[in-house]
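Example S7 (structure tokens).
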């Protein structure tokens, strides 16, 4: 959706550049209402989360929703996942109330938060927003006119739609971490080539000019995995009870970093021009190393399996060991009954 947003905005900017009046900025500004209206309408077609329904003891609705979401699976597999979600919710309730502070004080959640903030921060730290926002300024340094630069940016945005469509189609085939590493390496290489060429740029060298424009197109291609996964990964790693808070913090991180670079990038491009790309080259190298050493693969894992991955599994997985899960559930119910009985006795 971000790629579609950039695509529409870029071509609106190019089209409106032919108008010299107030329409050239009023229409693009007003057009932002359209995606919001589409989003509001789309909400009514979404399925309720099975886990959210089960947390509110609406088990029949949860099973119906799960069957819709897992329509290609066998009945037994769906039933096992239903029991697994039920067991984990029961174990969560036994732990007591969860506060906002828990996401920082609980080590497994804190680790998820750091990883989520990290992958979101590496998005703007890749340099993508500087190139998207200040593309005309970058191409002006190369001697390209404003209208031609808007056309180049628009073509790049159109290609991003193609890259993202392909990326979404193959995302679950290759996982999360390997594509992120390939993305970081490709972004670093494209930025390094342009930074070096920018230092020794000769305006009369048309081959060099074309090469630098091509590197920006290549940069857009390699950004695709990061652009998709930086939003998918945080949503996958947080448990339901802190997902809203976790995603809020990670998204804030993305836009905070974006805002910082948006503020001083024009001055940096004016002062040091393409040498500014060395900064983002370094950030992409750091991102590559972080993906390699610190980020676990989350492909194909359920929320309950994610708990086990981060070290806070509460009950055995029903999908992996139904007998152990049933025994743990029975033990939990007995303990809950004893605690309830003791509380009732003390009140009496």
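Recovered sequence:
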């Amino acid at each position: 959706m971000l790629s579609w947003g950039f695509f529409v905005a870029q071509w609106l900017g190019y089209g409106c550049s032919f108008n010299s009046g107030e329409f050239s900025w009023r229409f693009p500004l007003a057009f932002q209402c359209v995606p919001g209206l589409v989003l509001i309408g789309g909400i009514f077609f979404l399925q309720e989360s099975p886990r959210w329904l089960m947390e509110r003891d609406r088990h029949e609705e949860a099973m119906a929703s799960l069957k819709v979401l897992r329509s290609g699976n066998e009945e037994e597999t769906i039933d096992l996942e239903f029991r697994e979600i039920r067991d984990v919710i029961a174990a969560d309730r036994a732990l007591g109330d969860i506060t906002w502070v828990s996401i920082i004080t609980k080590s497994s959640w804190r680790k998820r938060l750091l990883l989520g903030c990290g992958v979101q921060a590496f998005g703007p730290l890749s340099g993508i927003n500087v190139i998207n926002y200040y593309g005309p300024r970058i191409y002006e340094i190369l001697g390209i006119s404003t209208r031609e630069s808007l056309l180049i940016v628009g073509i790049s945005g159109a290609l991003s739609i193609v890259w993202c469509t392909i990326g979404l189609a193959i995302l679950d085939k290759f996982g999360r971490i390997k594509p992120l590493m390939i993305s970081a390496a490709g972004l670093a290489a494209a930025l390094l080539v342009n930074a070096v060429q920018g230092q020794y740029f000769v305006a009369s060298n048309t081959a060099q000019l074309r090469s630098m424009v091509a590197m920006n197109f290549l940069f857009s291609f390699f950004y695709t995995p990061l652009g998709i996964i930086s939003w998918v990964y945080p949503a996958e790693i947080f448990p339901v009870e802190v997902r809203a808070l976790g995603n809020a913090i990670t998204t804030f991180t993305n836009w905070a970093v974006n805002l910082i670079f948006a503020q001083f990038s024009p001055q940096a491009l004016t002062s040091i021009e393409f040498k500014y790309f060395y900064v983002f080259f370094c950030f992409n190298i750091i991102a590559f190393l972080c993906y390699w050493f610190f980020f676990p693969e989350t492909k194909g894992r359920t929320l309950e399996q994610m708990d086990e991955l981060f070290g806070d599994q509460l009950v055995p997985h029903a999908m992996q060991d139904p007998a152990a899960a049933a025994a743990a559930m029975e033990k939990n119910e007995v303990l809950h009954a004893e605690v309830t009985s003791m509380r009732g006795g003390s009140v009496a």
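Notes on this example. The chain is about 80% helix and 0% strand.
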